[in-house]
Amino acid sequence: MEDERELARRWVKEAKSIAALTGAGISAESGVPTFRGEGGLWRNFRPEDLATPEAFATNPVLVWEWYQWRRELIGKAEPNTGHKALARLEASGKEFTLVTQNVDGLHERAGNHRVRKLHGDLWRLRCTSCGAEWPDRRVPLAKLPPHCQCGGVARPAVVWFGEPLPMEVLRASADAAEEAEVLLVVGTSAVVYPAASLIPVAKRGGAKIIEINTEETPASGVADCRLRGAAGEVLPGLVT
Ligand code: NAD
Ligand code: ZN
Known about the structure:
This protein is of the alpha/beta class. The chain contains 10 helices and 9 strands. Strand 2, helix 7 (about 105-110) and strand 3 (about 115) form a beta-alpha-beta unit.
């Protein structure tokens, strides 16, 4: 009998179009803590209490201190073998769309050129007054909160709880999920919506769903193949 990994490898090999949805788990082996896993807490705050427009309105410096901590940690992190396997998939000549919930920028650093970022980018800032957006990789930032040239307070250009996702990115991601023959669901707890809705969208479009996660998730039930293990260990074997 073909084992699950063999089966998944064959699906990936035979598919002409593939999409991947990644979450914090793919960066865990790079030393970036997931939100729900151990080490995800900062000064005993939960992300749900910091990653919100209300928290920023009440205490922008506190929220920025948290982002400063994450930028420091993530700035030192390197892409791992899981990220690199997805970069090889993009380079393979197949139709490939990478959709990520991560804001860490590790997919681009691994060599993926087209990354659909559902939740924004930790390395970009946005002005809360004029809406201007710009890249800023400085660690640490000189002064918190940082400001825009217009004098307005800048925030991280990420999507917070309760905020809408960038419409264009979401639409393009849903199109890719619908058209894909295979959807890789990697290191996501699949509980944050609408990101997680890409899984049923792909399923309805006829895609085989391959889940790669160290644990069971709500997506496990709809997955056609469940590979239990770390992304950095499982993905290189899928993309050979
Ligand atoms: P999550 O923290 O809710 O879930 C992480 C998932 O990864 C879990 O299901 C866990 O079992 C799995 N996992 C842990 N280590 C793994 C490994 N080595 N290999 C494979 N799977 C592993 O993260 P989420 O689903 O991405 O959703 C939460 C939100 O957190 C997202 O909006 C995301 O933007 C944000 N977030 C991003 C980062 C980042 O950019 N790296 C880090 C933390 C949280
Ligand atoms: Zn401005």
